[in-house]
Amino acid sequence: MKTGPPAPTIGAMTTSTAPLPRFAPPVPAGGGPAPRRSLAWTPYAAAAWAIAYAIGVRGYQGLGGTVGLAGTFEDPSGFRRASLIAGAGLLLVGLGALGFARPWGLRLPRWLLIAPALAGSALAMAHALTAYVTKSLHLLDVMELRFRGWKEHDEGKAIAWDLLFYEPWFLGLGILVTLAALHHVRRTGGSRRTERALVLATAAGTAVLTVLACAMLAADG
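Request: output the structure for the sequence above.
Response:
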């Protein structure tokens, strides 16, 4: 008696060599916002940025280096002393930025790290923006700036160093420290609303400080 082909077994019914269809990545339940990008690298970047400038620029000039200086000062020893003090302060900024990533930062109140960090960020970014605005207007003969403390001074060279080297560093430091603070907010359970509020507050502080500084320099000129 002829028989037909054997009936498929359960294993054959559930096993297939055909490629499985590709699916889009899962979306958060309820259609919520997508996961935020990691900012875990920013505290280390901010620390490296601050420490490199503290040693490579402030320390170098404080010990008598002249690269990046467009002239000589009326009080060279006073400038070197001020440069070393600024370098020491920036070393502290770099070490403090590590608190946004290292375990010891979790043992401190959140505001104790974030408040001074964002205030410093606003100050650093306002420093850069003020220079970009006022020195550009000075070059266009719209306003007059006074360059005090110099014995001999190459104005064009000094402005070039400032706008192309020093101020980008201030701007970069402010941005990196702000991002590092946001990382700390996230790792301590902060919400998106808190992040937005801190960013807006920092931006507003930067804008206010920039306007005030520009106004003071314009009045002084």
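Helices lie at 10-14, 42-62, 76-97, 110-139, 155-187, 192-220.
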